[in-house]
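Researcher: Next sequence.
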Amino acid sequence: MITFENIKNNEDIRGYITAADDSLCALGYTEHSFAHVTKVAETAAYILETMGYSERETELARIAGFLHDIGNLVNRVDHSQSGAVMAFRILDNLKMPASEIAEIVSAIGNHDEGTGVAVNAIAAALIIADKSDVRRSRVRNTDLLEFDIHDRVNYSVIKSEVKINTDKTLIKLKLQIDTRISSVMDYFEIFIGRMKMCRNAAKKLGLDFKLIINEQQLL
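Model: Next structure:
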């Protein structure tokens, strides 16, 4: 049985993630390396575990989260699809059962806005986990005067938290934003599509999705 630890410690996979992030760095994108994919893996697992999914499904969500951005090695455009193909080859070579590969590949291939749909529970958890990872430490640029809107929005986020309520009816993305750096409208300008995607993914899991910024509900 292939575990998350197997995937996380695989030298080839780590090499692909590093190279993919190097490509995005050259293009001026925020951090997509081990900090991002590990956070996405753990958030996706938290969502499924809290909602009562099996230990194995939770493990598959972790694996999908860790692998989800390797397609950036090929190109940023359609990286979810190329990443799904790469993940298929990796997992097939590791002799993972076809039924498990299918769930992971479907999730990775559907995680990006524009083309992605929460086709299964793992995909839904991956979408929410990926789109909610907004934080200051993802910004590579150290010169505030050269920030673009993505840099400003990420850098403005002091705290980000994904939480499911006790009744398991609601999932909340709670952000604390320094509005001296970026306004709430800036956030909506670049992330409204992602938040709508999160709302649809939450429905797949039987949850309502709420976005709360500085203690005010906005979605």
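Model: The CA atoms of residues 52 and 174 lie 22 Å apart. The mean pLDDT is 96.
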